[in-house]
Amino acid sequence: MPSNEMKYNPLGHCGMKVSQLSLGGWTTYGSSVTDQITIGAILRTAFDSGINYFDIADVYECGECEKAMGKILREFPRHELVIASKVFFPMSNDVNDRGLSRKHILESIDKTLKRIGTDYLDLYFCHRFDENTPLEETVRAMDHLVNQGKVLYWGTSEWTGDQIREANAICRQRNFYRPQAEQPRYSLLYRHKIETDVRSALEECGMGMVVFSPLGSGILTGKYDDGVPSDSRLAKIDWLRERELREDYLQKVRRMKTIADELGCTRAQLALAWAAAQPGVSSVITGATRTGQVKENLQSLQIEITSEIQAQLNEIFPPQIRD
Predict the structure, then answer these.
(1) Cβ of 62: how many Cβ atoms within 10 Å?
(2) Is 120 part of the annotated catalytic residue set?
(3) Whole-angstrom Cα distance, residue 121 to residue 128?
(4) Which candidate, 128, 46, 117, 122, places its Cα nearest to that of 87?
(5) Facing residues of 155 across strands?
(6) CA 299 – CA 297 distance, rounded (Å)
(7) Which is nearest to 178 in space by CA: 139, 129, 131?
(8) Closest by Cα among 16, 108, 10 to 66
(9) Contact (CB, 8 A) for 137 and 105
(10) Is the pTM of this model over 0.90?
(11) What are 10's strand-pairing partners?
(12) Residue pLDDT, tens place only, 60-102
C-alpha cells in the first residue's frame, strides 16, 4: 500500500495525479545498473513507498532502460502506475529514426510500448524541440496518439517558453489535445531559465512541471566536495563532468551544508524538498542505484521549506544568476 507520507499532485490542469517524488532511469537502469534483481528491488521499494510515476526515454541506453524497467513495472497493477517515456533523439543511423516528424513519432511509440510491455503510456514527452519539423506536424502527431489511446497525455521537455506557447496556440486553433507537462532540468544550481522564461509560459498554458536533475547530477549531495569518487556518475560521464563540476558550484554546496545540518537532514534531502516546494512543480524525478537511496530520498517529504529557508537558499543560490 502507498505510504501515507507520499503526496500526490495534479499534472498541471489535467485530472491525473503524480507522486511528489518519482523515479527515473536516466544513466542508471540498463547502464550503470544492469542486474535485474537490483533493478527490481529498487522499483519495488519505490512503488511500495507510494511512488506512482516512473520516467523513462527510448534513448536511455538505446531502449535498454525501457526494457529493464518494463520487466518490473509489469508486476504492478497498471492502473496504479503513471509511466512516461520520450521521443526525439536518434535511435539508429537511419536518417528518419530521429526528431519529431510524424513518421518518427508514430513508429517510435510502438517500439517503446513493446519494450516496456504496456498497451499505452500515461505520458509521452517530446524530448527536445525539433527545429527541422513543422511544429504543427509534431502537435498533430501527438494528438493522433492520444486519439488512438496509445498515449493518455503528452508533454514537452527542455522547450523554451515561446515554443510552449506556440504549441498550445496550435492546439487551440486546431482543437488538438494540448501538452499537459514540461520536463525541464531544474535545481538550486539551475534556476534562471525556468524562473525567468519557462514557468510563466506553463502558468499561462495550464501545464505542470516534472523536473529532472534536482541534485545537479549529484553536485548538491556534497559527494564531490573533495574530489570525484571513482564510482560516481561524473567519473564515468565526461560531458556531464565538464558541465557540472565547477568550483563556484562546489563552494555554494559547501555553504548549503550549514542549513541542512540545522534541519537535521542531508543536503540531497534539502535540495529535493526545495525542488518539490517550487511553484508549478508536480513531481521531482529522482534516481537511485540502490534501495537505500530511494528511502533516503523519501525522507525529503518530511522537510518544510519555510520562507526563511527559501531566503537562506536564495542567498547562496541567487535565482537571478544565469545558469
Answers:
(1) 13
(2) no
(3) 18
(4) 128
(5) 125, 181
(6) 5
(7) 139
(8) 108
(9) no
(10) yes
(11) 17
(12) 999 999 999 999 999 999 999 999 999 999 999 999 999 999 9
